[in-house]
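Per your request, structure below.
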């Protein structure tokens, strides 16, 4: 392949790789009932097919992001995709839940590829294309989750459970080939030291935290196991923060959080991650509830998955309107407006949920809000950090998103469990509306924080000492900008 063709194919390959990572990460969610039936395990045990992927994604993102800051970015991308492909094969032939979870864990490594694709875009694309491509990559990371639901549902419904995982192995192998042929080497970059101690501490802390979140409902939020995990997470992550601030080459440069732009972006990411998975969990389960329960539409897993198609479409579409939105509401107003649109989506379905089409409309509104915010946040973060910290900063951004996803899923499950009458398997209708209203309240609070926090930085641009010519172009494109208008 000629250099010109490789350059032309680079952005599509990075987008495809990001979509593959997102789609595969979501394969476990709609397939949990099928896994429970096929492998003869309880539904709560089958949930590990999703939890394991999120756990590995949260741990791998900052590690792969740091490796991507150095001369081995291409090799790290190839290694990550090889792990995802192997994981798909293992999951496809798994005879037991333990083997399936091992395969899904390897597939979860793919979630760590997203910051690498963003770093590659920043390094190898023409400067005028960097802002729009980074925004698109961020949105694809979220939209791919919505795309994974109907795709996996259709394949599993027509060809069986294992065919869905063979599909994951096939597309990840294709992405592996594309990266091998197109993505250039970064060997000219200086070596990026990997903070092994920080990586181990972060892994232990996140695993303890996400285990507690994932199993809180099943084990009991006040059980010794959950409380012990939460204490362990608090102690280890506290120690990790101290270690990161003291080491000369940290896994994540936490001092960057002193900049209002970075703190606002990461704060919104975790809050919107919570709301996103509360919505996805609540709505997809609601539409599948048999109408005999007095609510719900008795939809199949395929139809439930298709209800998320508007989410994916409008996420990508609204991300392309970011410059227009920035012009009309100002750079400081993009995140608050996006959070409020996400809140409107939940309020709409909490109020109107008597027809299936209303779920589709709700998902479209959700896509508009998340598309705009998830497109803006990476530019906000990237524009506030030195180029050498891009992979690390975006890796941390992915971590907080995955923590938000897990927390949102667990919070939805906890609320629904609390609204399930004794001796019954289905929650009351009020349980689902409560999930939605709680998410709405979270989004409104996030909008207020996103508006107030940047203003505390004053009129001075906190990135002045860090930004170079490229970041100025990002600001000019409307993806990053001053802390106040």
């Amino acid at each position: 392949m000629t250099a010109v063709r490789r350059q032309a194919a680079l952005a599509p390959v990075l987008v495809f790789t990001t979509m593959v990572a997102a789609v595969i990460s979501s394969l476990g969610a709609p397939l949990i009932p099928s896994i429970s039936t096929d492998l003869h395990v309880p539904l709560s045990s089958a949930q590990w097919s999703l939890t394991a992927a999120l756990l590995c994604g949260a741990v791998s993102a900052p590690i792969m992001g740091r490796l991507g800051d150095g001369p081995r970015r291409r090799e790290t991308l190839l290694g990550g995709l090889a792990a995802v492909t192997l994981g798909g094969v293992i999951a496809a032939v798994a005879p037991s839940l333990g083997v399936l979870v091992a395969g899904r864990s390897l597939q979860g490594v793919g979630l760590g590829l997203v910051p690498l694709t963003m770093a590659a875009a920043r390094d190898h694309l023409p400067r005028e294309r960097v802002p729009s491509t980074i925004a698109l990559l961020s949105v694809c990371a979220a939209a791919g989750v919505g795309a994974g639901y109907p795709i996996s549902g259709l394949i599993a419904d027509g060809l069986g459970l294992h065919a869905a995982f063979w599909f994951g192995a096939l597309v990840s192998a294709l992405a592996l080939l594309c990266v091998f042929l197109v993505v250039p080497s970064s060997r000219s970059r200086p070596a990026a030291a990997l903070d092994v101690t920080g990586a181990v501490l972060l892994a232990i802390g996140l695993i303890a935290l996400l285990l507690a979140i994932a199993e809180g409902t099943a084990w009991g939020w006040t059980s010794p196991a959950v409380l012990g995990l939460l204490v362990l997470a608090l102690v280890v992550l506290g120690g990790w923060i101290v270690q990161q601030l003291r080491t000369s080459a940290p896994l994540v440069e936490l001092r960057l959080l002193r900049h209002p732009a970075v703190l606002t972006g990461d704060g919104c990411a975790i809050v919107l991650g919570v709301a996103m998975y509360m919505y996805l969990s609540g709505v997809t389960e609601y539409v599948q509830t048999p109408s005999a329960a007095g609510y719900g539409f008795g939809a199949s897993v395929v139809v439930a998955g298709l209800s998320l198609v508007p989410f994916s479409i409008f996420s990508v579409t609204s991300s392309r309107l970011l410059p227009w939105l920035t012009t009309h509401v100002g750079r400081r107003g993009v995140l608050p407006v996006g959070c409020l649109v996400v809140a409107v989506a939940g309020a709409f379905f909490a109020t109107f949920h008597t027809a299936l089409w209303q779920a589709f409309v709700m998902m479209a509104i959700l896509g508009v809000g998340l598309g705009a915010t998830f497109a803006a946040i990476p530019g906000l973060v990237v524009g506030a950090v030195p180029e050498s910290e891009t992979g690390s900063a975006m890796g941390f951004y992915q971590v907080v998103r995955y923590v938000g996803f897990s927390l949102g899923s667990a919070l939805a499950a906890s609320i629904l469990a609390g609204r399930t009458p004794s001796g019954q398997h289905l929650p009351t209708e009020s349980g689902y509306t409560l999930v939605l209203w709680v998410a709405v309240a979270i989004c409104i609070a996030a909008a207020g924080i996103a508006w107030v926090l940047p203003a505390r930085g004053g009129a001075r641009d906190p990135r002045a000492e860090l930004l170079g010519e490229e970041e100025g172009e990002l600001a000019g494109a409307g993806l990053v900008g001053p802390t106040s208008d």
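The chain has three domains: 1-193, 195-250, 256-485.

Regards,
D.
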